[in-house]
Design goal:
264 residues, alpha/beta
């Protein structure tokens, strides 16, 4: 479903601010893979997701989604293949519109707009059914303005909107980092259910080592623009946080100095 072949990216090349962010990333995801990504600040995690999404062009390499080479496609043309949830809960929804209106926008993504009436009763019932998986009671608040929801409720709604059209690839960029632990756990639970139900292929960046081990069928660790560890299956299930810290020290030759990761 996804292939990254020798992907390189350098920011501000030839200047004092030059930063080599990706140093030839090779990565293959099969259909239905749910990959968690960990690494310290500056490891290249978000840069890799932005490269896949087409936020800016890469310097070298190829990006292939479901057999389609999207390397030279601009961000808006890649959007039909991707669902994305950002770290900021305020990013993925329209605050001044109702919950059902936000869902209607997501469900009409990529379709031609017409002058037909907006949301019919059948569509409304479908949205209610979809919202139940979030376990936040939003199915009873379809006409509530999204701007009145909590950050966790908005992030859960964003997740639902990003997956409504069953994207080829779901990109989750620390989508629970700004939430309190209880709400984060609910959003992660909904994430697991939606990915399993629709057999989605997903990449989830997280700073929480425990979450990285608990969720998904595969885990990769990044350091200074490279993938330094890739584990899946039974080996991943048996991992502990101490194993990841030890692995980081082995491969990187240094201690894990990221406080956010350690505290998590």
């Amino acid at each position: 479903m996804l292939r990254l072949i020798g992907v390189k990216k350098t920011f501000n090349p030839g200047t004092v601010n030059e930063k080599k962010a990706l140093l030839g990333i090779d990565l293959t995801l099969n259909e239905g893979d749910f990959v968690t990504v960990i690494g310290g600040n500056g490891a290249g995690k978000s840069t890799m997701l932005n490269a896949i999404a087409g936020v800016w062009p890469i310097d070298e390499g190829e990006i292939i989604i479901d057999g389609i080479n999207v390397t030279r496609l601009p961000e808006y043309r890649r959007a039909k293949y991707l669902g994305r949830v950002f770290q900021d809960p305020m990013t993925g929804t329209a605050a001044s519109m109702q919950i059902e209106e936000n869902l209607a926008l997501a469900s009409r993504r990529g379709l031609r707009r017409t002058l037909k009436s907006g949301i019919n009763s059948a569509e409304r019932e479908r949205y209610k059914d979809k919202l139940k998986i979030l376990d936040l009671g939003l199915e009873e608040r379809l006409t509530a303005k999204v701007g009145l929801l909590s950050g966790g409720q908005r992030q859960a709604l964003t997740l639902l909107m990003a997956t409504l059209k069953k994207p080829k690839l779901l990109l989750l960029d620390e989508h629970t980092a700004a939430l309190d632990p209880k709400t984060a756990a609910k959003v992660l639970d909904a994430t697991d259910k939606i990915i399993a139900r629709d057999n989605l292929t997903a990449i989830m960046i997280t700073h929480n080592m425990k979450d990285a081990i608990t969720h998904g069928n595969r885990l990769i660790m990044m350091h200074e623009g490279r993938i330094i560890y890739d584990v899946s299956g039974e080996e991943k299930k048996s991992l502990k946080v101490s194993d990841l810290l030890e692995k980081f020290e082995q491969v990187s030759g240094g201690e894990f100095a990221n406080d956010r990761m350690m505290l998590a």
